[in-house]
Design brief:
By secondary structure, this protein is of the alpha/beta class. It folds into 3 domains: about 90 residues, Fumarate Reductase Iron-sulfur Protein, Chain B, domain 2 (Orthogonal Bundle), CATH 1.10.1060.10; about 160 residues, no CATH class; about 110 residues, Rossmann fold (3-Layer(aba) Sandwich). Helices cover about 50% and strands about 10% of the residues. The chain is built from 22 helices and 8 strands. The strands form 2 sheets. A 4-stranded parallel sheet has the order 2-1-3-4. Strands 6-5-7-8 form a 4-stranded parallel sheet. Strand 7, helix 21 and strand 8 form a beta-alpha-beta unit. The longest helix is centred in the C-terminal third of the chain and has 18 residues. The chain is globular and about 65 Å long. The N terminus is likely disordered.
């Protein structure tokens, strides 16, 4: 093959300017979870970018080692935050993963079918109940982090008004509806009327995007936009991964409608930080709280500081983890596909949590909390802590 004319298969479709921005300085390496646990340059941001250049610019073949380097990326984007040259790593890895998905039709077919369930709430409810039964029978591997209960049996999120939407989504609606309920109660305490989005907008498409299923993620984005664009209310999201995806719909779809939609999306803590004065001021809970930042809140939305701001009035003490926001290894379905790497990355996070000696750990993303729960760490959502403080005063 002529090295100057790469095959159609080898072209990753990455924007050339974005790919050329990396100066190979290596300052991102300590912030990359896969590099930290392996010490392997090809599993670092710099190594992956170099491989992308070789494939896209020089027509290098996609060997199993190259594919492994791309597939093992957690897509946490910690490297993006760390990079002084502002390399938009998300814009590099997303087309790369989509190109990888297209190379294996069988794998894409399986992912499409498996993740397609997320857009069918009734079917997802059945899957959640079946997973619970299998879990109780000891037939679900611990690493899947299947919760010990199924949310639909426990909580109903009532519509209380039309001030804001609360995006209820798929995984959280099946397994963590109690978090939605806590959000609704906190908003009610602030005098804010909530409309849960429910089955009209059943899934944001983030996991599809993460798996390289670009067309499916676009279809989900279009469905969510159509369902929630009858008015211009703010859309509050209590899952960091979903919020990050919905804030990027404008980039995904490249339309004015999608950009206008994304501008209405707020992480729950981010929005509440601007409305804290409306909440009652109960006595703080007598607890020491550690905050685990989901990568999609810290590195993509860059809204993680709001979590501290909204929690601080409601707890005795709030402490930081000592790992500078390093990923926990959950990464969408990464913990299922890459259990060894995900487990090794989580071990580092667990060490950091232990050193914090906190009574409670909070995380604003279902994937992180389920992944940490699979290692025996009880994690709560920030809104559940605030809800408890407010309920104590009632
Ligand atoms: S991505 Fe940024 S920090 Fe990492 S090697 Fe390239 S230029 Fe340096
Ligand atoms: S996105 Fe995360 S795992 Fe992937 S290269 Fe960047 S820091 Fe490493």
């Amino acid at each position: 093959m002529n090295a100057a004319s790469p095959s159609a298969e080898a072209v990753l479709g990455i924007d050339a300017d974005a790919l050329n921005k990396c100066v190979q300085c290596g300052l991102c390496l300590p912030h990359c979870p896969t590099f930290r646990v392996t010490g392997d340059e090809s599993l670092s941001p710099r190594g992956r970018i170099q491989l992308m250049r070789q494939v896209q610019n020089e027509g290098a073949p996609i060997t199993p080692e190259v594919e492994r380097a791309f597939e093992s990326c957690v897509q946490c984007r910690g490297c993006e935050t760390a990079c002084p040259s502002q390399v938009p790593y998300g814009e590099l890895i997303e087309p790369t993963r989509q190109a990888m998905a297209k190379r294996s039709r069988a794998r894409s077919f399986i992912f499409e079918r498996a993740l397609g369930v997320l857009g069918k709430p009734a079917l997802l409810g059945l899957v959640a109940r079946a997973a619970l039964v299998f879990r109780r029978l000891g037939l679900v591997p611990r690493r899947f982090g299947v919760p010990a209960d199924v949310a639909p049996e426990r909580e109903v999120i009532p519509a209380t008004g039309d001030d804001v939407y609360l995006f209820t989504g798929c995984i959280m609606d099946a397994w963590q509806r109690d978090v939605h309920a806590a959000c609704a109660r906190v908003l009610a305490a602030a005098g804010v009327g909530v409309t849960p989005t429910g089955s009209e907008a059943p899934c944001c498409g983030a996991l599809h995007r993460h798996a390289g299923l670009g067309d499916s993620s676009h279809a989900f984005a279009e469905r969510v936009i159509a369902a929630l664009s009858k008015d211009d209310r703010p859309i509050l999201v209590d899952s960091a991964g979903c919020g990050a995806a919905m804030k990027e719909y404008g980039d995904w779809l490249g339309t004015e409608e999608a950009r206008a939609f994304s501008a209405r999306v707020f992480d729950m803590q981010e929005w509440l930080a601007d409305h804290l004065d409306a909440l009652p001021k109960p006595a703080p809970l007598d607890i020491k709280l550690a905050v685990q930042d989901p990568c999609h809140l810290r590195h993509v939305q860059k809204a993680h500081l709001a979590t501290r701001e909204v929690l601080r009035p409601f707890v005795r003490e709030l402490v930081e983890l000592d790992d500078e926001g390093l990923c926990c290894g959950a990464g969408g379905i990464y913990s299922v596909l890459e259990p060894e790497l995900a487990g090794a990355i989580r071990d580092r996070k667990c060490g950091s949590i232990e050193r914090a000696s906190a009574d409670i750990v909070v995380s604003a993303n279902p994937g992180c909390s389920m992944h940490l729960a699979a290692a025996g760490i009880a994690v709560r959502h920030p809104m559940q802590v605030i809800d408890e403080a407010l309920r104590n005063q009632r």
